[in-house]
Amino acid sequence: METTPVQTKPNGPVAANFVATGIACLVFGIFVVLNEFGGSIGDFLKFDANFGLGSGVGGLSGKVILAVIAYLISWGALYYVWRGKEVDFRRVLAASLILVGLGFLLTFPPVFLIFA
Hints:
By secondary structure, this protein is mainly α. 70% of the residues lie in helices and 0% in strands. The longest helix has 25 residues.
């Protein structure tokens, strides 16, 4: 009896998505901290007042929009580099979880108020 080999697709595009998600979370956390500095950074992040996006949300609109832009740029770049390649998924997953954890940590008031 002959068994047919299972063909798998390269995991590069999936890995790019995982890392890009981690980068976006970290960017969001960084902008939460930067917003606490106030001044021109806090005013810039109010995309509802500056650009009419996300009416009534305040600084959250800018943080989310910039995090989405960071996701799209990093995903596009990593996808281009890793398409058709098999990457070490354990390292990718570990890096992604670290990036998400750091971004999540930066959104907690006891942490971001240190920088205020």
